Amino acid sequence: MSDPAAALTALLRAASIQDHDEVLKAANAAIKADKSNAHAHHTRLVALLKLDRFDDALRALSEAGDRLEKECAVEKAYALYKVGRLPEAEAAIGTVQPATRASRHLAAQIAYRAEKFDQAAPAYRQLAADVESEGLPGEENDLRINGLATNAQLQWKGQGDLVDEHLRQPAREDLEAFETAYNAACGCVARGDLAKASVLLKRSRDLCEASEDLSDAEKQAELLPLLIQHAYVLTRLGKPAEATSLHKSITLPDVPEPSAKVVAQNNQTALGSEDQNPYLTQRLIESASALSGNDQLFEYQAAVLRRNRYALGLQMQKFDGIESSTSKQILKAPTPTASTEIAGLGVINAAARAQLQAGKIAIKEILPILEKRPADIGLLLTIIQLYVQTKNPGPALGLLEAFLKRLEQATTPDHGDARFSPGLVAVTVALYRLFGRQNSIRTELAKAAAHWRTRSKESATSLLREAGVELLKSSNPDDLALAGDTFEGLAAKSKNDTIAAAGLVASFATTDYPKIEPYLSNLTPVERLTAGVDVQALVEAGVASVAAVAPESRKRPADVEPQKANKRRKKKRLPKDYVEGTEPDPERWLPLRDRSTYRPKGKKGKKRAQEATQGGVVKEEETLELVGGAGAVKVEKATGGGKKKNKKKK
């Protein structure tokens, strides 16, 4: 019988890439003959990795002993990476000393898959810098593809400040291969430049279809992710017809990657779910293949799918379950947090609590939750939106100011980042502008600029620009100095930022001219800006005055009476005994008893008529003073006739 070890050695000399099964059989035979054969154990491990049997490779490695495990740290880390055990893979690759080029490649890939893009990006940059001296043929193109993918992920995660300025926009060499064009398009999607992303995706599809290095089956497999991404971009651009046409060309069972299949199923369902039964839609989404191992969604993708499932649950009126589930996730998260994922859960939780009602009814249901979760930014923004929709922004501003005051009293950095998050500052400024509180707007933006000026966060760049522009309108020297420092920091980050350069010049033009000289060449000359301006015509037209916007009163406006409709005039009705030409009685509008022709009947009536002022006897009265100064009373004056009558009786 031939020696198994010798047979294995002979097979390895003549092996090609298609011989992995034969190599595995020979290695197993050699191990069966001699379990201490380290070379056979190593060969079996490599063959299992080549056959994508990663779980079997880890079991074979543990059976081989600790010595082989230390020698094969790269192989172990790769197997752990492929089965999705990323923390263990990171620890294993860290034991490789000194680090080889293969271990550096694997470490960068593990960091990328673990969503530690801030570690993966410099690793790929260093590998690209050493490619001329240490690299293999074709490695430069692979590094460029991976670097573009990492830069896109950084921008998706809100860490675009870690990407060099010259790498944010697509370069000419990115348009030469379909992989680099696709990754450059993903970077445009992350920045919100959807129109350019659509052009790059079209370019990537054309390059893939025209490639001579791929077979028809390989082209089809590469085209499917491009079509899925392009359909998503067209949907975001407001072109649902074109997106639907692309989705129809995608056959879900043909999508090779399970994660891409899940995304495609979700996008197709979301695009045509307006008139669909939510129960059927849920079954369609759940029918997508389950994800396992290394083939998992990134966190921002998984968050979108979770929100979609919650939206379907709301349509199916599963209010109690959704409220309970979202509450648990919100309470687990650190508070307060400006995370879009947690804020979105706060909105869904409020919708479940209010049972999809709106207006004052929803506010009444949601307000008690804010007392239990006072740091829930998503819930707070939902209540503010409801108050604004009901045209009652006063309580909304009161709630927001109380929330901001609570955050300012905290001293941790996380509280500061949440307090001055760009979205929250934008809502505050919008409410202040609604009430005409310009000084409050300037104060809020000044605080935000002072907070973010020392931090390099990409999401705060637009906030710093707006804060600087607003501070330039102030006459306070401190505000102008803060505006200058803000624009100076922005100009240092990006030399092509014309807004920052203009703001810097406007801030220091009268106080520090040498500081603005390097930026003057980046601005358009004044002569070119005023070339088509007729100065004489402007002088003759006079100075235009802009009416100041009066602050909106908090009082309830008076109800405006509806305009009465024109009524048809009725024809005048005349009495039956009316004789044309005679004048009507002037006393016809008076009551009957007040007319001069009124004659009461009976003795009492005649007596009342005599006592009346019209033709009657006027009684004379006199005033008598009471004794002791107690006052005076009016009595009827005695007449002489009474005395004569008394005399006769005597």
Automatic annotation (TrEMBL):
PANTHER family: SIGNAL RECOGNITION PARTICLE 72, SIGNAL RECOGNITION PARTICLE SUBUNIT SRP72. InterPro entries: Signal_recog_part_SRP72_RNA-bd, SRP72, SRP72_TPR-like, TPR-like_helical_dom_sf. The keyword Transcription does not apply. This is Signal recognition particle subunit SRP72. Residues 549-600 form the Signal recognition particle SRP72 subunit RNA-binding domain. Its main location: cytoplasm. Keywords: Cytoplasm, Endoplasmic reticulum, Ribonucleoprotein, Signal recognition particle. Residues 565-574, 598-607 have a biased composition (Basic residues). It comes from Neoarthrinium moseri. Belongs to the SRP72 family. It comes from the Eukaryota. Residues 552-564, 575-597 have a biased composition (Basic and acidic residues). The lineage of its organism: Eukaryota, Fungi, Dikarya, Ascomycota, Pezizomycotina. The keyword Magnesium does not apply. It is found in: Cytoplasm; Endoplasmic reticulum. Gene3D superfamilies: Tetratricopeptide repeat domain (1.25.40.10). Pfam families: SRP72, SRP_TPR_like. One of its GO terms (molecular function) is 7S RNA binding. Transmembrane segments: none annotated. One of its GO terms (cellular component) is signal recognition particle, endoplasmic reticulum targeting. Component of the signal recognition particle (SRP) complex, a ribonucleoprotein complex that mediates the cotranslational targeting of secretory and membrane proteins to the endoplasmic reticulum (ER). Residues 551-650 are annotated as: Disordered. One of its GO terms (biological process) is SRP-dependent cotranslational protein targeting to membrane.
